[in-house]
Backbone:
């Protein structure tokens, strides 16, 4: 099949294949960056929930030691976890397995309420999903839409990724989450910059391929035409071609 192609077509085929492979590899690595950003967020959430989980375990240890009643320990744990913050406004919440909201620092009106039917804008039953994940694996990630603190509209929903973990002695689930729209914004900015760089590289590669192709094809055409003239019997046999 390749023998049917002209030299120019073969050179362009090689150039196009090279640029396609380079562009695909470059974009693949770019998209992997988003996965790396998400993995970093997930690792951070796991570590943070372990902090809150340790708070509950610490108070339970005092219950077992006879220092506190279970009710007093739970009340103290809720108070401590309610005040925990990171990255400015990010917080923790607690619910039970029913599910009822046990503690929510941003939406205290939910506390004590059955929240199993609370859904996001995509119809996902958020707290029921927390319970399902904990019942299945003891802990895990849940993505959904939720209001963001300190926004102009308390009704505006943003994509959020949360990590939840059950605390079996109390039948509680503690969780925290981060809004992942910043990941999309960061990735979009990086993708835009990478596409601009890729476009520049492709222009250079294709431009170089054009110049190389021209430097090969032009002398060949002159040589071919001279040979045709000689074959036709009307060529100048004293002509010397450029050896270079």
Residues:
């Amino acid at each position: 099949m390749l023998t049917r192609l002209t030299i120019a077509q073969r050179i362009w085929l090689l150039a196009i294949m090279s640029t396609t492979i380079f562009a695909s590899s470059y974009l693949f690595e770019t998209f992997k960056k988003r996965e790396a950003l998400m993995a970093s967020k997930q690792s951070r959430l796991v570590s943070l929930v372990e902090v809150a989980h340790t708070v509950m375990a610490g108070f339970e240890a005092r219950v077992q030691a006879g220092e506190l009643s279970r009710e007093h320990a739970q009340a103290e744990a809720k108070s401590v976890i309610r005040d925990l913050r990171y990255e400015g406004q990010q917080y923790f919440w607690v619910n039970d397995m029913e599910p009822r909201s046990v503690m929510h620092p941003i939406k205290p009106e939910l506390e004590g309420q059955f929240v199993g039917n609370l859904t996001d804008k995509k119809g996902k039953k958020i707290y029921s999903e927390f319970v399902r994940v904990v019942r299945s694996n003891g802990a895990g990630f849940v993505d959904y839409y939720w209001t963001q603190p300190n926004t102009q509209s308390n009704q505006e929903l943003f994509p959020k990724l949360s990590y939840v973990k059950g605390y079996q002695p109390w039948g509680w689930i503690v969780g925290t989450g981060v809004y992942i729209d910043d990941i999309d914004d960061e990735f979009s900015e990086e993708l835009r910059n990478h596409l601009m760089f890729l476009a520049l590289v492709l222009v250079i590669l294709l431009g170089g391929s054009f110049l190389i192709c021209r430097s090969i094809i032009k002398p060949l055409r002159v040589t071919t035409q001279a040979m045709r003239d000689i074959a036709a019997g009307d060529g100048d046999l004293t002509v010397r071609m450029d050896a270079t």
